[in-house]
């Protein structure tokens, strides 16, 4: 494959095939093209563009401040560098039903395989923080119907934040309504315990996505545990972003303290390692081939 021509022709269809084929999918959180490319090269079959990680990388809080245009830009840049499906955090759909229709068309054009839309009121909050508010059930159902009416290939994931606002019963009720409205996958945010994950899976008959974030309401469970409870996708949304922040902090501290990087070379990717990740030599071969044909 020519390195500058990647992406999938029908990413949503590719994700659906994986859902049918695999017991469970692990979706590492990515926040720029190289993080997604590393995940793919290490064997990931799907990746997740996290809203929290993306906004954090732009030095913004995850409060619905980021714009649709910004998320579309990063979706396009990431999807064009990889050959696996990309799931994208689309917050609340960037508005009401009409806005959701436009967002769906733009995400499809940018190469997303799936997006998830949540049932929070703007300004939204991280799903694991207090102070969240929900839109009405009917309003969210209308958003899902609008998204499905606009989608050609895009997989529509409905996220409910009801557990932390109205309780687990409400989250289950909403999830069932979202499936009836046409959602392809349900994402119950911030469940509190193993029993809650098990009960949600027993009572909601559809593909389920679990969020295994750090420092939140959910205890640390393994992919195997989620698989045994009936979940189909597990996302690790901000793990790599948090690791990168700590690493950058360590590097800058060393540079400012000692005035040299020579003591931390073992913690840095070499030039050769970076070149392999970004397919540098394939670009070089392509350039020579084009030059020789002129």
Strand content: 5-15%
Order of helices and strands: HEHEHHEHEHEHEHEHEHHH
Tally of domains: 2
Structural class: alpha/beta
**Main beta sheet strand tally, sense and closure:** 8 strands, parallel, barrel
Helix content: 40-55%
Number of strands: 8
CATH class of the largest domain: Alpha Beta
- CATH architecture descriptor of the largest domain: Alpha-Beta Barrel
**CATH fold assignment of the largest domain:** TIM Barrel
- The helix count comes to 12
Work out the radius of gyration.
Answer: 20 Å
Describe the protein.
This protein has 294 residues and is an alpha/beta fold. The chain has 2 domains: 11-240, Phosphoenolpyruvate-binding domains (TIM Barrel, Alpha-Beta Barrel); 246-293, no CATH class. It is 46% helix and 13% strand. The chain contains 12 helices and 8 strands. It has helices at residues 11-21, 33-41, 51-57, 68-79, 97-109, 137-150, 168-180, 194-203, 223-228, 239-258, 271-277, 280-293; strands at residues 25-30, 47-49, 86-89, 114-118, 155-160, 185-188, 207-211, 233-236. β7, α9 and β8 (233-236) form a beta-alpha-beta unit.
């Amino acid at each position: 494959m020519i390195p500058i021509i990647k992406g999938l022709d029908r990413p949503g269809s590719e994700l659906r095939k994986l859902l049918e084929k695999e017991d469970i999918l692990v979706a590492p959180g990515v926040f720029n093209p190289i993080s997604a490319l590393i995940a793919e090269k290490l064997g990931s079959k799907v990746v997740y563009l996290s809203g929290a990680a993306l906004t954090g990388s732009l030095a913004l809080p995850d409060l619905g401040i980021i714009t649709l245009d910004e998320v579309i830009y990063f979706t396009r840049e990431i999807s064009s560098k990889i050959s696996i499906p990309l799931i994208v955090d689309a917050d609340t759909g960037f508005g009401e039903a009409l806005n959701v229709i436009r967002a769906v068309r733009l995400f499809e054009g940018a190469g997303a395989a799936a997006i998830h839309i949540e049932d929070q009121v703007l300004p939204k909050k991280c799903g694991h923080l207090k102070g969240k508010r929900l839109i009405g059930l009917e309003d969210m159902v209308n958003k899902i119907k609008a998204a499905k009416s606009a989608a050609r290939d895009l997989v529509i994931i409905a996220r409910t934040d009801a557990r932390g606002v109205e309780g687990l019963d409400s989250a289950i009720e909403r999830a069932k309504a979202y499936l009836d409205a046409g959602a392809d996958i349900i994402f119950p945010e911030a469940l509190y315990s193993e029993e809650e994950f098990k009960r949600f899976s027993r009572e909601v008959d559809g593909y389920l996505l679990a969020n295994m974030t750090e420092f939140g309401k959910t205890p640390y469970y393994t992919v195997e545990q989620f698989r045994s409870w009936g979940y189909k996708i597990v996302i690790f949304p901000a793990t790599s972003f948090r690791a990168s922040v700590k690493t950058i902090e360590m590097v800058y501290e060393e540079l400012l303290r000692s005035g040299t990087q020579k003591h931390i070379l073992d913690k840095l990717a070499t030039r050769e390692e970076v070149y392999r990740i970004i397919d540098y030599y394939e670009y070089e071969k392509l350039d020579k081939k084009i030059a020789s044909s002129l």
